[in-house]
Amino acid sequence: MRTYLDFEKPVAELESKVAELRYIQDSDDEVSVLEEIERLEEKALKTLQETYESLEPWQKTQVARHPDRPHFSDFVDGLITEFTILSGDRMFSEDHALIGGIGRFRGRPVMLLGHEKGRTTEKRIKHNFGMPRPEGYRKAVRLMEMADKFSLPVITFVDTAGAYPGVGAEERGQAEAIARSTDCCLSLGVPMITVITGEGGSGGAIAIAAANRVLMLEHAIYTVASPEAAASILWHDSARAIDAATNMKITAPDLKQFGIIDGIIPEPIGGAHRDPDKVIGRTGRTIGAALADFQGMEADKIRALRHSKFLSMGKAL
Questions:
Q1: Number of domains observed in the structure of the chain
Q2: Rg over CA atoms, the chain
Q3: Same domain, residue pair 50 and 65
Q4: What is the number of alpha carbons within 13 Å of residue 236 lying toward its C-beta?
Q5: What is the pTM of this model?
Q6: Domain coverage including residue 216
Q7: What is the pLDDT of residues 277-295, one digit of tens each?
Q8: pLDDT per residue over 38-47, tens digit each?
Q9: Residues 33, 97: one domain?
């Protein structure tokens, strides 16, 4: 069953009527409602298109958090062959919120890292809702250093509300782990490509997103803090999350204009959750084009371009 967001109610009503008419058509051969079905389908598609062409930042936040959006595991299944998970940080434990491993992207060996939120309640608990603990970021450092040693491009998929803020995580050095992971990204001599697929939340995102190319799905968000957290900090009222989302400029078009990201991957009408295969295919083509830009480039040049990219942010503002 399809999950509808609050602002999609008009679309939900139209598609519900279409489903009812299809049931009548299938159960009674003497009744023909095909013309009405076609009319309602056309109206539903038009309504959906108009709705998604004028989404507000808070509505985009809701789309970015949609439970049916493609997850890290979906991108791996659709783009990567021979994927082998590499577990553990060699210090404390395995972190299931941040998955990493080696695979082949279009035949080329690469290192993959990505947040995984999980779909079922059981999986969400296992993956801690995509919020890594320090051991997740220390694992990321271990795998990125391995990629650098063996000249493997690094591809990361970001979809997290942020790093886990629990007491245990703070006791084990959450901030230090995030800082070291970010530093490791910046020091790589191999190409690094990041795709923000849903939420790109705070340091939990940037820790695996200080890349040569930072790409975003059209309805993803990328922010220094969640709208709810920002509202609590600025106005001491998390209910003002809509105001925070609007003022923080967290959507792909705004971030592209400010030079924070390098490209936007279009989503199907109605969001990535309506046609995951299509958006996964587009993502693969965009990653392939980005990697091609660094083909045969020296490590020092790759590193220098990455440094320059981040040091130049905000200079023109």
A1: 2
A2: 21
A3: no
A4: 0
A5: 0.92
A6: 61-311
A7: 999 999 999 999 999 999 9
A8: 889 899 999 9
A9: no
Q: Which is nearest to 54 in space by CA: 253, 306, 198, 222?
A: 253
Q: Are residues 185 and 250 in the same domain?
A: yes
Structure token digits, residue 80 = 């990567």
Q: What is the CATH number of the domain that holds 238?
A: 3.90.226.10
Q: Which two tokens stand for residue 199?
A: 């939420």
| Amino acid letter, residue 81 | T
For 159, how many CA atoms within 13 A lie in the half-sphere containing its CB?
Answer: 32
pLDDT digits (tens, 9 = 90+) for 64-93: 999 999 999 999 999 999 999 999 999 999
CB 105 within 8 A of CB 156: no
Kindly state the helix (H) or strand (E) to which residue 113 belongs, with its residue range: strand 108-115
Please spell the DSSP secondary structure of 193-247, one letter per residue: EEEEEEEEEHHHHHTTT--SEEEEETT-EEESS-HHHHHHHHHS-GGGHHHHHHH
DSSP for 123-141, please give it. HHHHTGGG---HHHHHHHH
